[in-house]
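[job 4471] stage=fold_predict status=RUNNING
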Amino acid sequence: MRIAVNTRFLLKGRLEGIGWYTYEVIRRLVQMRPDDEFIFFFDRPFDESFIFADNVKGVVVSPAARHPILWYWWFEWSIPRQLKKFQIDLFISPDGYCSLRSDLPTLMVVHDIAHHHFPQQIPFLVRSYYNYFVPRFLRKADKILTVSEYTACDIINIYGIDEAKIRVAHNGCRDSFRPVSIREKESMKQQFAEGQDYFFYAGAVHPRKNVHRIILAFDKFKKKTKSPIKLLIGGRFAWQTGPVKTAYDKAIHRRDIHFLGYLEDEVLPLLTAAALAMVYPSQFEGFGLPVLEAMQCGTPVITSNTSSLPEVAGDAGILVEPNNTPALSNAMERLYVNEQLRKTLSKKGLVRSREFSWEKTAKGVNVAIDELKK
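[job 4471] inference complete, writing structure tokens
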């Protein structure tokens, strides 16, 4: 069997959410199916480290698809030509897009449909593309894999997609996210938090992620407790970061808030494991990988009681209403003053994290492929 995979998010040194999903799942899938041939479609020159085995061939397909017009060109014109050229039997697309002009069996991974719930946070041209193509992609795909039960229900309820063609395979977490020693924790504090304990957020700095409300809640927490604790915010600045800048500029304790930017793979797990708590009150997530990463490190979690986040955190985190700034501030205070609560959540998080793994995810993809072959 010859399988093509959309690997346009495999970018050396720049792997983020979908990129990590593609990397962790597809490299396992290649090992699971040694008798199949895999053709990886990149949209720019690629690093050879992404050619995971001898049964993989990498192909650069133009144009570099990072704009709605180029998405259309890539998926509706370039990809169909390549599928025919390489006589592909099955197309896997892990980023929620597929080709409407191809008749090949297609397995598409859907992470979320956030654009439907938060259209105001998406630029007009991108929003228009999503509104037109996403429902068509969902109907066109022969099998849909979602990363949470929440996302599966969401696409059924919003778009009326047949439940029979949807499978759920949760995300996993890299092994580099693990508990660390006291010495390693102190090293992170010295490097990034002036030697103090810190709350940590990791993810895109975007209004939907509620980073501005983390800042507001942290300022309230600092005012009440007079604590020396810091707030570290790790992640690239995404669209519409105005509310974050406004919240920061108005924060009385902004000197205790540090923006770290994009964090390298070697640093992020250590910062996560050394934090007093992960604070992730996102307004909407298809899965919420930073929550799982924190739990696997034994780091207590504060997260939202909405979308998929309760599904991931279970009883191993403090759940708050994401738009309730006082509740978020109170959760910070509870964790700061209650060492026993931190220990309890740490233990629960470690247990909860064992329910998720990239091996399970890859097996879910593998089963979906076999179902399409029947």
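[job 4471] summary: The chain has two domains: 2-172+357-373, 182-353.
[job 4471] exit 0
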